[in-house]
Specification:
heterotrimer; A mainly alpha (268); B alpha/beta (299); C mainly alpha (182); A: 268 residues; mainly alpha; C: mainly alpha; Rna Polymerase Sigma Factor, Chain: A; Arc Repressor Mutant, subunit A; 0% strand
Amino acid sequence: MKNNKKSKYSKYSKYSKYAPPKERLSEWKFPIDEKKKAEGMAAIHREITAKKIRHYPTFLENVWIQVKFQPMTHWIAEGGLLLSAMALMLWLTRIGNREYGKLMICSVFIVFAGNIALSSIGRLFSWHMAELEQTLYLDLKQMVCIRMLEAGLFDLAVIGLFMSAAGGSDQIEAGMYLIYMLVPFLWSDTLYLHMIGYFRNAAYGLKSFAAGMVCGILACFPLIWEEAYAFSHRPIWFFMAAAGMVLFICEIRRILGKIEGGDSVCLN
Amino acid sequence: MPELKLDRVTKQFKNKIAVEHVSLSLKEGVYGFLGANGAGKTTLLRMLCGILKPTAGEIFCNGTEITKLGGDYRYMLGYLPQDFGYYPDFTAKRYLTYLAACKAVPGEFAGEKVQEVLRLVGLEGEQKSKIRTFSGGMIRRLGIAQVLLNDPEIIVLDEPTSGLDPKERIRFRNIISAMSKGRIVILSTHIVSDVEFIADEILLMKKGSIIEQGSVASVTESINGKVWEYTAEAAEAIRLNDIFAVSNLKNEGDKVRLRIVSDTCPCKGAVLTAPGLEDVYMYHFEEVSEHVDHMEGRI
Amino acid sequence: MEDKELIRRIQNGQKEYLNEIAEKYYDDIYYFCCYQTGSREDAYDLTQETFLRFIRYVEKYRYRNLKGYLLTIAMNLCREYMRERGEVRQRLETADNQDLDTLEDRKSRETMNRAENSVLLSEALMRLTDIQREALILHYLCGYKNREIARMTGAGYRAVKSRVRQGIEKLSIHLDEQDFRS
């Protein structure tokens, strides 16, 4: 039975006439050669002296750094925007049925919200900071990505707010609503990012203001063309949304590529 | 001990070759890149920092290509661009803290480090003031401060003293000298006196290539026998100034003492004299480098 | 100071504390390397290399059990070492055992016994397979539980348990044969 399974050494284990193994093993610490140890410690000490402690920040720490050092004005602007978005939303739910008017107001608002959120990225490139930031451990690409993420979240929050307020009405389904808002949003963001690339010398505030105005005005086009929201034109909206998405992605890749190539980050 | 190696590095912009086949080996010490504007110095320095990618050739740090090192290389680097950027609304302290964070200086350590560099450049008292209130010299000093935040082993300074007055320049030279121990310091300038006294090696750059390389002594040696001194009347002086490369003019009573750089004797009575780095600059670039030397006056 | 606090300070830039860690654990690592490889000489180099490696990658270390981590590094180094040697060392180098020379007082007699005992122990250990020896040293000499050893060596819990058991049984036989004096 079990006896067969016992190892052939078992008769020598613990019950052997000599002291149990554990006690035998207790005297294993012989004196170490101090001289050799000292040599080893010296080498270790040299390595410690030469060592430079590097702190590799985690992604979250990177995000925190970017967030922590945004100027106060940025947060005030975004906060103010969110508050006004909420106020707008409340007002819209009160005025009742003028769907298309509401829609237009929302889309213009989102355009501005998008621009302000993206301004943080613009700031990265302004004041010649880009060249310096490119050489930091936290490289420019990471910083742009983090800020885009922040801008994206903010914008999504605003869109979500509007969706919840105005969506689900009879005349327009929520999905379509989204598309109506996304189109001017995507196109204006793309335009904005594109403009960041040029006119680098111009005063930063002026440039972003100009970009914002242009986009805002463009978003108002439905005012002129009442038929814009008509059902028959939906395919056009879909197409514009898709095109806008593609262009937006292209623009982001272009910026990241520029950083990669480096040529245009500098004034040269 | 870091070691940088450039292997036939070339940079071409559309139809212009900014840097052509530069091969260098840099170890500990101060390297002064001298050259006129447009010589390609800035482009070369940007490639060293990894901002621009070379069109051809490679840059190695301790045997590994710098693009492969990525963040690890940037960790060892401290860069001061020619057009140094900052956020005007930030205070000096906040700005440095931000950069310390971006340079991944460990948390608690960063505070100490910021104070240390502020002390080093003499901006400790102004740390709570906004940068937009700073003078040109103070901004430059802030630039140097940020370079040292991560204790870099490789320091690259692009025209760091442009816009500074003589006193600031001297102060600057001292700071650089002090921080060069155990590091590679690369300094580009068109001002000879910036590097004359502190550089271990001078590299002259013209049209994208290194035309001369060596210690200050050996580089000035190279134009031995080509620097002449001559005292002339005012009218003659003007004439000579037009014809020859004159690296210095000094009024002496009603006469003018000229320092002429020329392969052959420029005129009767001109006397050979020991060359200086200024003269080397003149010889190669046929223009006067911006020279601020409070010992010798200039016209 | 606690290990956790030491590591925290080091990773925050105060690298001087690395010296403290080296002081604290040098001996433990040395004994491990010595018994694992059977060479007192080479154990000094291996111990040094253990700490150098630790220092090199200290920023990425996540504190859990510092001693265990150091032993893991040492263990891997010893494995590399054994692979390079390609042979099991049967005998301990006694060339540098100065303590065997002084026989005068009781203290040195005790030391001599200890030294001889350690030699015998080492020889007996070298008769085991590498991984049995590893597990045995970690269990009996360093005091780690089987579960911890399993984590450190990357082996399964059951495998470790049987290695320790078989190892101690084999060891007992070898020690019996040598007439081990306590």
